[in-house]
Structures are given as C-alpha cells and as structure tokens.
Amino acid sequence: AAPTDNAEELPVQVAALHSLGQLASVQHTPAKDAPASSVKPWEHEAAVRNTLLAASQRPEVEIRERAAFHLGQFSDPAVTERLEQLTQDAELFTRFHAATSLAIQGNVKAL
Fold it and tell me: Cα(first)–Cα(last) distance of the chain, in Å?
C-alpha cells in the first residue's frame, strides 16, 4: 500500500505494515528445536526493514505506531537510531511502541 492522501486507504496501509511485521516475526523465529543462532537473514529482510523505516517517517500517527511496533525485530544500527528518535515522537503510542521495541533489543534507552 503506497503512501497516499486518501484517508480511506489508511487502514489498508496499517494492515499492510502489520502483515509485513508479522512476516518478519515468523522469519526471525527459529524452529522449535533450532538454536537461536540458526536464524539467518531472509530474502526480503532488507526490503521489509526499509519499508518499516520509511513508514516510521510518515506523518500519519497510525503508520508511525505500527512501524515502531515492528521495527524492534531488526538488529540494525539505522533501526536502533530511528527507534531512539521515535521515543521523542509527539504521539504517546508511537513513543510507547518505540520504547518497547528498544527494550526487546535490550537497549537501555528504552527507559
């Protein structure tokens, strides 16, 4: 769902971001008996990460919230930097999700 000024498309865009985040979650979860170190980058990881990073810059709060929620799944300096910025967002739930994502990464800046 590409960015648009059409307010009717906002729920579609939020749902698409959520689906991308769910895909990342599944890809980053090791098989039941596999060691955590067995998780390898997957084919679309960079594209999903970059889409979520771009979404975190959007003016629509719902989009930024969803992006902040899912960005914590990525171990990447650009993601960490953006999440740290989002902890200062004007919107409460964007700050909440950014802090939660940083906490998942073990980043004390979540506090």
Answer: 33
Cα–Cα distances (Å) from 89 to 1, 2, 62, in that order, read: 23, 23, 12
Q: Tell me which long-range contacts 52-57 makes (C-beta under 8 A, separation of at least 24).
A: 52/17, 52/20, 52/21, 52/79, 53/78, 53/79, 53/82, 55/17, 56/82, 56/86
| pLDDT per residue as tens digits for the range 35-92 | 656 556 678 888 999 999 999 999 999 999 999 999 998 989 999 999 999 999 999 9
CA distance 16 to 40: 24
Distance CA 105, CA 33 (A): 22
Say which amino acid occupies 91: E
